[in-house]
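pinning this so it doesn't scroll away 📌
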Amino acid sequence: MFAPAASPDGYAQAIATRLLTRDPFGQWLGLELSEVRLGHCSLYFRVRPDMLNGFGALHGGVAFAAAESAFALACHTHGRQSVSLTATMDYLETGRLGDILLVDAREEILKEKVSTYLLRLTNQHGTLLALFKGTAYRTRHEL
């Protein structure tokens, strides 16, 4: 259980920070928090050689995993454990070695049992690489 922070956004930041520090896969990806508030999380990471596919482009699984991580953190900013129901991703452009990618998750719908988030994956030039949509089931378990 998290101690109450000075503000709801402070509480959201504390949750995201704690969850990300306990996430070995997110650490392997090199995910860093950019911005967190209720219903919103932005992460960034640098594309490394071990993240590339056989064509020298960012592997789609890495892009999806980074988006799924931002989705999960945004879901949990309200202090209730959530689990993914569905997630889809449209790949529009590719990331390249050395790119710094930003994954921005924004809450679109928050209901008692379900929430939906839209995410944008962009590079350091602002080029849109992918769009992600995730829907989560909100459990009754408080963080």
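📌 and the second one:
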Amino acid sequence: MANLNLVKTIQENRNLACHYSNYNWFLAGSFLAETGDWLNRMALNWFVFTLTDSPFYVGLVEFCRMIPIMLFTLPGGVAGDKWDRRKVIMVTQIGALLTTLVLAFVIYLGVNSIGYLAGFILLYGIFLAFEIPVRNALIPNILPKPAITSGLSFFSAALNISRMIGPGIAGLLLASWSIPTVVFLNVICFAGSIAALMMVGPVHPRAETGNQLKFGPGIKETVTYFKDHSIVLCLFGLGIVPMVFGFSYTTLMPVFATEVLHAGPEGFGLLLSCSALGAVITSLALGWGKYPLSKGWLFSGGIAAFGGGLILFSYSAFYPFALFLMFLVGMVSQGYRIIERVVIQETIPDHLRGRILSVVMMDSGFIPLGNLLVGFLGETIGAIAALRFMGTVCVITVFLVILMNRRILAIR
């Protein structure tokens, strides 16, 4: 009996990503890079707002940061399948580091041109757009297959913790430090992330080398894979809907905080913090690899619950209950995204991993489009009706997709 328990314990440890030093270095580097990015993002947004007193220019800066995700993640995926993924990440991070260093120096010199600033942020966004799919594709190369689910979940938790603490740290620092100094902290974070990546060595060498991979045929092979594997296409397609109609709920939160819940700017920040906390808890819980239901049910149910949570929130006028609902919204929204990534990572072959993930990661690029749509709806039909519409679209879409392809529920 003792031997059986020992074997079981060893097996469970092998399924946990945190028991592999390569992964721990990778996770530490990812956490540093993401936290530094939030410091950089908050500092630059604050700089633009104090410089122009215009929300439009802040939105323009955010657009320059996000639009490369739509345009450059696929070339990044090709690069990740063609060359060593760890080295590709390091090159993109060195590029982002140098861009940030120059940007901090330009602000320090007093150059206040929005055009210069937007150009630097666009270049910075291109480097990150190349990096995003490659970083995700590297995880299965530094972990054995049983630990991939755990690795993806803990990776997601690290990013969400950065999302929680990064803006708060930036706010505290901006109260006493200059903007160029806070921007320069991102340079230090990138340097630490690059140093951590240098400690990582692939546990499982890639089965195929992509040195001969060309961009055109590589894209064609990616399209063919989606055509031949309808379940992956279905997961990706369904996952886009909440990115457009769900995650843009943050656009309406200032209205709810001030006009519906009467909680002011502090209440607005706490609403988003509760959502991020829910996302972190889900990520950590799923990191142990024990799911109460099949992955298909968790994925589709998570999107439906996300939509339902937004609908319930729209009816809430009691602030503590609204905080609780935001916590649940963060939990279920993060849960479905992790399940989607896990299923796709377990399904796709390694020589296509970078390209397929680059397409999947494009879903974040739909959030700005959702922000425009939700902003328009908020102006025309009101914030409450807009939020109910968004949640309803998410719920109805899930049921329609299940009716058309019930195989999605059978995913294990």
